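Pasting as-is:
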Amino acid sequence: MTRSLLRSHGLYPLLAFGLTATLLAISGADLMVADAFYRLEGHQWALRDHWLTAQVFHGAANRVIVGAGILLLLAALASLASAPLRSLCKPLWYLLTAISISALIIGIGKQVTHVDCPWDVLRYGGKYPYLPYFAAHPGRMASGRCFPAGHAGSGYALVAVYFFLRAVNPAWAKWGLTAGLGFGMLFGFDQQLRGAHFLSHDLWSLAICWFSSLLCYVAWNFSGATRNGPLTTPLTTLATLSDHGKSPVSASTAH
């Protein structure tokens, strides 16, 4: 199972990521997309401080993400002592670890790559010339903190929910994948409209989150759960009862 998983969830996505990243780099798609947004906004980043893009989809969304992270930490801690949550202990700690590692790698990447945001680039009214993200950034140009994309990464980090659900209830896993990709694309699009990131910044954040989640999943040795069936958890019990048209209450009174 692990070999099959690494092929379907590791090798194939890696090839797709490498091909897409290469095409973005050689086609100049980053600049083409940013040029289009900049032109549509009147040759300025008119949406940079707009209430919807800045306060709702960035500021408020960040606060919701932090709040969700705190709740996840509390749930993971509670699973260590709470009998009803004990069966979810391993999956919850996996989820917390995978998301944290993704955030950590993206945060470190921002500090060491020194890549500027579009709004800092001369082409879009900034102070610095555009440089590819792996080019040297000498002198004062080594102050950029825009690669990979942090806000999009906070959405893409939710792809870990896909792997979490593969362990506890595979039938629901697709919804975890939908959530991770959906929120990542939404947050990434918002930041591109604001001039905060290029398209490739989001792609790299997605790759970091996906492969971090996958490697943690393998390290947690969940492959046996999906091979032998999902773990027995409150989620799987609820799903089984739902499939049979029963509620937990009716099921308990039937015995």
